[in-house]
Design goal:
This protein is an alpha/beta fold and 442 residues long. The chain has nine helices and 36 strands. The protein has two domains: 218 residues, Alpha-Beta Complex (Spore Coat Polysaccharide Biosynthesis Protein SpsA, Chain A), CATH 3.90.550; 170 residues, UDP N-Acetylglucosamine Acyltransferase, domain 1 (3 Solenoid). The chain is elongated, with a radius of gyration of 30 Å. Bound molecules: uridine-diphosphate-N-acetylglucosamine (UD1) and calcium ion.
Length: 442
């Protein structure tokens, strides 16, 4: 995608005290992706040439994590206006400045594009919304001609201004030519003693510049300040994902109980029963059936496989076409070949199964000796009898069979049977004698 000439400044240095957490607010996740990285991907989709992240001095881990950004540090959290100014070195007077908040992660590409379009006629474009509950958002004050004259913070607002329902999302696009001048004029004479970015609207008007507001949907502009709002944002994100997959031809038997990550990929024709969880890194090809109460992370499921109910598919797993994974089966870092079946009560870890392998109920791969992990290789057509332990490292050759109840510690060659049971002994009359000893029968 071609880059557009735009500097974005993403704010994330605020203390986030209302989260009551040691983790920086912008690193809290929605759909398994930190909020600020939702903004990162948005900016990549918009084609923004330069992304600058503003953080506080103690956020080194966050800076290390956010490699797609240039970084600037706001030494003290003196307000959103002050925060943008800490990126002054990047503001060169020729490029427009788009300010986004790391705690407002769900804004869409289309909305940013609408702002860029409005910028052609105005020096300052603020993104506003009409939320059902205007709560403590800043209020956008428009004049009769429909121009934006100022933004008043909730704490500063008069009773009449609090009744205004047009609210500030925080996102603003500034004509690069005037950006530094506007930002440097902001002062901290207000209820909180902070440098409010929102003051630039009034300042712009005083300087004879033109400001307007573009409207976005409140659902994409939710600002997250607490865990309650984080949960609301997660809900909005999940609803979006559910609609996306339903529209792509995925059947969700009970959409509200299917949980997606930001990067979940599911092709059309799949059927997903209730209570299914997709962690990060999951790809599901077409016509897969996922039965109720299954859990997936970092795995690839190929066409027409059937998984669950009650299956757990862990990272590094690839399940081939038409394979069947049944109830209470856990699979980790393994390849399951085409048409193979692991139908009941098994743990398969660090294993490679060929095609048409059948794993009997209760089979466990013993892949760990307390120090290292070892591989189990089961070639095409292998049949493992129920309740067997396969002690790795282990290779079982093509079409070999393991007798039920075996503990297999040595390799088995092609077409062999491996069995470790002791021979069965039937003791005549012993059951009757046993019961008699307990005086249960005469
Ligand atoms: C801000 C807006 C308000 C708007 C609301 C939308 C101001 C003054 N107010 O209020 O009009 O309705 O967002 O959600 O802008 N930050 C810094 N450095 C600071 C202070 C904040 O980087 O010194 C960052 C925070 O990490 C956060 C963002 O700026 O990502 C917004 O700060 P926050 O304190 O949450 O602002 P609100 O009170 O929500
Ligand atoms: Ca906020």
């Amino acid at each position: 995608m071609s880059k557009i000439k735009l500097i974005s400044v993403v704010l994330g240095a605020g203390k986030g005290t209302r989260m009551k957490s040691a983790k920086p607010k912008v690193m809290h996740e929605i759909g398994h992706l930190p909020m600020v990285q939702h903004i990162e991907y948005l900016l990549e989709n918009v084609g923004c040439a330069k992304k600058v992240f503003v953080s506080s001095p103690d956020m080194q881990d966050t800076r290390d994590h956010l490699t797609a950004f240039d970084h600037t540090i706001q030494k003290q959290a003196l307000g959103t206006g002050h925060a943008v100014l800490s990126a002054a070195n990047y503001i060169d007077g020729t490029t427009d400045v788009l300010v986004l908040y790391g705690d407002t992660p769900l804004v869409t590409e289309q909305t940013i594009k609408n702002m860029i379009t409005a910028r052609k006629d105005y020096d300052l474009v603020v993104l506003g919304m009409h939320p059902q509950d205007p709560a403590q958002y800043g209020r956008l004050i428009m004049d009769n001609a429909g121009w934006l004259t100022r933004i008043v913070e909730f704490k500063e607002a008069t009773k009449a201004e609090k009744k205004v329902t047009f609210c500030n999302s925080g996102i603003v696009l500034i004509n690069g030519k005037h950006a530094l001048d506007l930002l440097e004029t902001i002062n901290n004479k207000n209820a909180k003693g902070e440098y409010y970015l929102t003051d630039i609207v009034e300042i712009a008007n005083q300087k004879g510049l033109k400001a307007t507001a573009v409207v976005g949907d409140e659902k994409e502009l939710i600002g997250v300040n607490s865990c309650v709002e984080l949960a609301e944002a997660e809900h909005i994100f999940q609803t979006r994902q559910r609609h996306k997959f339903l529209n792509a031809g995925v059947t969700l038997r009970d959409p509200a109980t299917t949980y997606f990550s930001y990067d979940t990929k599911i092709d059309g024709g799949c059927i997903i029963e209730p209570n299914v969880f997709f962690g990060p890194g999951v790809t599901i090809e077409k016509d897969v059936t996922i039965r109720a109460n299954s859990y997936f992370e970092d795995c690839h499921i190929k066409q027409k496989a059937c998984i669950g109910p009650f299956a757990r598919i862990r990272p590094g797993t690839e399940i081939a076409e038409q394979a069947k994974i049944g109830n209470f089966v856990e699979i980790k870092k393994s390849k399951i070949g085409k048409g193979s079946k692991v139908s009941h009560l098994s743990y398969i870890g660090d294993s490679t199964l060929g095609e048409n392998v059948n794993i009997g109920a209760g089979t466990i791969t013993c892949n760990y000796d307390g120090y290292n992990k070892y591989q189990t290789i089961l070639e095409d057509g292998v049949f493992i009898g129920s309740n067997s332990s396969l002690v790795a490292p282990l290779t079982i050759g093509k079409n070999a069979i393991v007798g039920a109840g075996s503990s297999i510690t040595k390799n088995i060659n092609e077409d062999e049977i491996g069995i470790t049971r002791v021979d069965q002994k039937n003791i005549k009359d012993a059951a009757r004698r046993f019961r008699k000893s307990k005086r249960l029968i005469d």
